[in-house]
Amino acid sequence: MSASVSHELNNIMTIILEKSGLMADLAWAMGNGRDLNPERVREIGDSFSRQARRGVELLKHFNHFAHSVDDPSVTFELKALVENIARLAERFAALKKLDMKTELDEAGLNIHGDPFSMRHIIFMCLEAAMAPLPPGGLITISARGAGDDALVHISAAPATETGLPRDIAVLALELARAQGAHLDVTHGADAVVMTLTIPRGAC
Amino acid sequence: MPELRVLLVDDEEELVGTLAERLSLRGYDVTYLLDGAEAVRRAAQEPFDVLVLDVMMPGMNGLEVLKEIKRTRPEMPVILLTGRGSEQDSQTGLELGAFDYIMKPVKIDRLIEIMLKAVGSND
Hints:
heterodimer; A: alpha+beta; Heat Shock Protein 90; 2 domains; five-stranded mixed sheet; two-stranded antiparallel sheet; 53% helix; elongated; B: alpha/beta; Rossmann fold; five-stranded parallel sheet; 5 helices
């Protein structure tokens, strides 16, 4: 996870450095009689802002992730946690040319438990869900309340013959059990769906 | 100034577009692509002198592209762009026939130096 984030941050800094180098190149060219369209300067300025915002957003999510180890027993908001881990997993999906969608309408879904372990379980489910998918596949993550439980659904479409990697799925299952949660896997015609059932106050 | 035809491949469009523009300002003939499979196809059809290739790309990654290029255009030198912590990829790339590698952030003068060395130019 941290290797992926640092790789993406390195890409962001590389773009900023290249744009800065381009500005120096254009200034040199202007000094040698070449015209420079002011629009070009504005475009480069926009790129600096865009990349800086991309970096800030990534660091915000990484910071939340880093702080999740601070206290293993707290009340946390599930939607924010799922959004956090989904954002950090985006690069893994992009490297496999997968689309990733989050459906998290329900705010205020509070859980008491270990926020780091919960992130770990959801990330492992995502890793398992992504593994068999071909380019163009779709991962959908949703979270909702169901009585005393909260449910996180991770759907991987299309369903493939390969199925989920057994080692990762088994580990996710064991980690879920250790947190008082339960993990089910349903193999449908169109998708494989992993459902994580989390007792809202008992994990 | 040598008239080098350079193919640049990286999935980060803002990076590869900017690198291409900076090389063009220095007189090089640059084509850039965002996709490894497309790079394999174009390299087989067009007379590029050198390929500058990112390793970590979606779909067909840089090492897979390198393998294919070495099969179809073995004479074309390939320079790999790698991130920090990718020493194993760099080593594998060299074993697969890459001419050299350069780490991001790229120093453009260093990239040009390696490109010229790769094509055997003394300029």
